[in-house]
Specification:
It contains 11 helices and 20 strands. With 399 residues, the chain is an alpha+beta fold.
């Protein structure tokens, strides 16, 4: 079974890469492998469904350029393929005077990233958008929207298969062997030959990268984000999307409110170390994976640097009262009884040996593979742009 390209991982980035490759060269023999029995089973399937505008990201970074390009490509794809979405806009709110300069920096960054129409809101104007919101000032970002990324991923797959791309589920990659210019990808069911491997395996991207012979100085550390949902009776409190001004020194956005494409309001997430790479519940523990995270020198440095923030996140994980208190900073009317358990997602966060949490997309190449080793939020929004970036690297190698 010989292919030109084998993509490992059927999340939204792997599928977008495959779609871009097949659209650019329909004759490519292409296979996607995934260990799960469904598409988009992990980060994509647990995504909060926000179409990000590119507000937060350093101008000129891969994150910024891919988000802005990917945003436009995603909107165009959804329109052409009749995937429901809504550009409802979001509010970023400063809840104290101390946060106002940080909010103003965000507005400048948004302008540098080409976002038109960001509007500064006074305290009274905040109430016009979100009547129950607490804040001293805010930004309205009109470009932000909502979509169901599982539906987007399934539509990518449908288009790939129309172009004669193959998708094989329930096939975990056990080993990758290289010999000369050819590569063999081995699963429990089959052995496949290919010219090049593309690794889009998310939470296990570092492991698969090592299969390809890639030298790595980063490790994937899994962070779980836990959500509550507002009860049906209290959904009226939130019209659309409400975000805090993020801590610039911490790579997470803080608890926020998100109206979902399928209905309902999510509240959260916190950000805690997951005790296994696919640890969606507090009780999910794989001792070997946990010890691997704890033993990584980079994680130890992160834990030392952010121990106070981390303890607060962990406390909120076990205390509904503490989680509620964090939400009340944005929405004072929220009470514990207004919250019911929601879902959880696990973020694959690349961490280097020196304690750096890699903020940008990280794509590494060797003779036999292109490895996407860090694709944090907004990877779903950016998926077609990331896919195009990877596809261009692949096609340059094949020509």
């Amino acid at each position: 079974m010989k292919y030109d390209i084998i993509i490992i991982g059927a999340g939204i980035v792997g599928l977008a890469t495959a779609l871009q490759l097949k659209e650019k060269n329909p004759k490519l023999r292409l296979l996607i492998l995934d260990k799960e029995d469904q598409l988009a089973a992990h980060q994509t399937g647990h995504n909060s469904g926000v179409i990000h505008s590119g507000l937060y990201y350093k101008p000129g970074s891969l994150k910024a350029t891919n988000c802005i390009n990917g945003y436009n490509m995603l909107i165009d794809f959804c329109r052409k393929n009749e995937v429901p979405f809504e550009l409802c806009g979001k509010i970023v709110v400063a809840t104290s005077k101390e946060e106002v300069p940080l909010m103003e920096n965000l507005q400048k960054r948004g302008a540098e990233n080409g976002l038109d129409g960001i509007k500064r809101l006074s305290q009274s104007e905040l109430k016009d958008h979100e009547p129950h919101l607490n804040g001293v000032a805010g930004l309205f970002v009109p470009q932000t929207g909502i979509v169901d990324y599982s539906e987007v991923a399934n539509k990518y797959a449908e288009n790939i298969q129309k172009l004669d791309g193959d998708i094989h589920l329930n096939e975990r990659v056990l080993k990758i062997k290289t010999s000369g210019s050819h590569t063999e990808v081995i699963t429990p069911k089959n052995s496949y030959q290919c010219d090049l491997v593309v690794n889009c395996s998310g939470l296990y991207s570092d492991k698969v990268a090592k299969f390809t012979g890639q030298q790595l100085d980063v490790k994937i550390i899994p962070f779980r984000g836990e959500y509550f949902k507002l009860t049906k009776e209290k959904e009226y409190l939130v019209k659309n999307l409400i975000y805090p001004v993020p801590d610039p020194n911490f790579p997470f956005l803080g608890v926020h409110f998100t109206r979902m494409m399928k209905g309902g309001i999510e509240a959260g997430p916190n950000a805690v170390l997951a005790f296994q790479r696919e640890g969606y519940k507090k009780s999910d523990i794989k001792l070997a994976e946990l010890l691997e995270s704890l033993a990584w020198p980079g994680f130890q440095k992160v834990a030392f640097k952010y121990w106070k923030t981390g303890m607060g996140e962990m406390y909120r994980s076990f205390s509904k009262a503490a989680f509620t208190k964090a939400l009340q900073k944005l929405m004072p009317e929220i009470t514990e009884k207004d919250l019911v358990p929601g879902g959880a997602g696990v973020r694959a966060q690349a961490c280097d040996r020196h304690g750096g949490l890699i903020d940008d997309f990280l794509i590494l190449e060797n003779e036999h593979a292109v490895n996407v080793c860090n694709a944090p939020s907004p990877a779903a929004t950016s998926s077609l742009s990331i896919g195009l970036t990877v596809a261009e690297k692949v096609l340059a190698r094949l020509n």
